[in-house]
Amino acid sequence: MANMAAVKAEKPSNDVGGIAAEHLRQFIARIEKLEEEKKVIAEDIKEVYAEAKGNGFDTKIIRQIIRLRKQEEADRQEQEALLDLYKQALGMI
After folding, report:
1. How far is the C-alpha of 64 from the C-alpha of 69, rounded, in Å?
2. Are 62 and 92 within one domain?
3. Tens digit of pLDDT for each residue in 42-88?
4. pLDDT, position 4
5. Is 11 domain-assigned?
6. Number of domains in the chain
7. What is the predicted pLDDT for the residue at 19?
8. Residues 74 and 92 occupy one common structural domain
9. Does residue 70 share a domain with residue 48?
10. In the list 61, 68, 69, 92, which could disulfide-bond 87, CB 3.0-4.6 Å?
11. DSSP letters of the chain?
């Protein structure tokens, strides 16, 4: 029995404070890689907006359209109806 305890004591543990250290390192490495990819993609998107602006398009409107296209049709229609109602109430229509 004492011999078995000595073998366990010699064996290096991959756990630190109950956390699987290697598993944690893998998660962090994956997240860091994705964050770097996200940064590259954000730069690519910025370049596309700059190109669109250079071709005479209004990037604020393009951003608005992209935001609208992400919404469900029913949500978008409800939002547009409320916007029209508010504009009408303020004499903007």
Report:
1. 9
2. yes
3. 999 999 999 999 999 999 999 999 999 999 999 999 999 999 999 99
4. 52
5. no
6. 2
7. 77
8. yes
9. no
10. 92
11. -HHHHHHHHHSPPSEETTEEHHHHHHHHHHHHHHHHHHHHHHHHHHHHHHHHHHTT--HHHHHHHHHHHHS-HHHHHHHHHHHHHHHHHTT--
Q: How far apart are CA 55 and CA 66, in angstroms?
A: 18
Q: Is residue 53 part of a domain?
A: yes
Place of tokens 């996200």: 38
**Based on the domain organization, do 23 and 43 belong to the same domain?**
yes
Structural domain of 22: 18-57
Paired strand residues for 19:
16
Q: Per the structure block, which two tokens stand in for 55? A: 């071709």
pLDDT of residue 83: 94
pLDDT value of position 7:
46
Do 15 and 21 touch, CB atoms closer than 8 A? yes
